Amino acid sequence: MTKNRKPFSKDILHFENIDEVVGNICTQLKEDVFKRFHRYGGVIGISGGIDSSVTLALAVKAFGADKLLGIMLPETDSSPESEQLARDLADKFGVKSIVENVSDALDGFGCYRRRDEAVKRVIPEYDPKVDKMKVVIPKEFVNKNLPPVHFISVTFKDGTEKQVRLPMEEYLQIVAASNFKQRSRMSMLYYYAESLHYCVLGTPNKHEVQQGFFVKNGDSGADVMPISNLYKTQIYQIGEYLGVPEEILSRTPTSDTYSAEQSQEEFFFQMPFKEMDLIWYGYENNYPAIEVATVMNLKTEDVEKVYRNFIRKKHTTEYLRTGPVSDYYAG
User: Fold this and answer.
1) Which domain holds residue 246?
2) CB of 198 within 8 A of CB of 39?
3) Phi and psi of 11, rounded to 5°?
4) d(Cα 106, Cα 180) in Å, to the nearest integer?
């Protein structure tokens, strides 16, 4: 083990100095918004999820509710609960909020039509008017040294469910069509930010950024990202500290992208965030897999497989974190 490094433990991510941590984030947030970008405040898309809620709470502490605008961006597949929780959040922190439904924009892009065409090629009996769909990764793939395999899952009107492995062409079409949602929301956020001379405050967390669980030029489109270096468990700790409503703190993280209810775990991460946070910390800080496994009561080979899965995700999603290539030689 590296000299002076703390022994790995289940509490290793817990902030003992949360006042200082929150203070540092808020200080940098004020510095970036007011001095670096010379803007008057911030615009944030709020969804009733923990990440956007904590980002809003941090911004309120940093520069006051009167310099913030919360925007709810529902669409046809959004859960009504998301909007209500977002309203409750804004009300609690005294932030002005508005609703901009982006369904018409998505219809114009052909988002739903293009997605449903791909689903019906795989499950012809799927009827988007009455059935629900989502894309999932079966849990068993996390314990295999294999890339994740995506399935389409359809819940029919009568409650029965059908899962079919997605061919690559249909998978890519569904994802590409669905990504219109994040990109449309980003455009709306920038409309308000530019009309108010505000910054867009992004909400991705550490795992989403580093493992590639975001849409390029979609939810990655922001001016500042206050929680992008925080693990999910740390975000929950800050949420409790800042008084984020309990209904949000206790809610299962969801992608809120497809018509069927879907957790982030089954769509991308493949494991609960509390477990993933610790294993990622071990991976990122070069703790031997055997040390992590011993503390977490896991098999060493299973932790090694997760390490390899992290490496694969970072490699395959590097494109998402890369900006436009502009260093071409003009002669």
Assistant:
1) 18-108+173-317
2) yes
3) -105, 10
4) 7
- Has residue 8 been placed in a domain? no
C-alpha 48/C-alpha 245 separation (Å) is 10
How many Å apart are CA 94 and CA 48, to the nearest integer?
Answer: 15
Amino acid found at 226: P
Stated pTM of the model: 0.91
Among 157, 172, 187, which residue terminates a domain?
Answer: 172
User: Quick check: helix, strand or coil at residue 151?
Assistant: strand
pLDDT digits (tens, 9 = 90+) for 148-199: 788 999 999 999 999 999 999 999 999 999 999 999 999 999 999 999 999 9
Tell me the CA distances in angstroms from 175 to 17, 150, 151, 183, 258, one per residue in order.
Answer: 40, 11, 12, 12, 10
- Cβ neighbours of residue 232 under 8 Å, at least 6 residues apart? 50, 205, 206, 207, 253, 273, 274, 276, 277
Neighbouring residues of 235: CB distance < 8 A, sequence distance ≥ 6: 50, 51, 54, 205, 227
Rounded CA-CA distance 151/166 in Å is 5
Write out the two tokens for 265: 């775990």
Pairing of strands 68-72, 42-45: parallel
> Does residue 285 belong to any structural domain of this protein?
yes
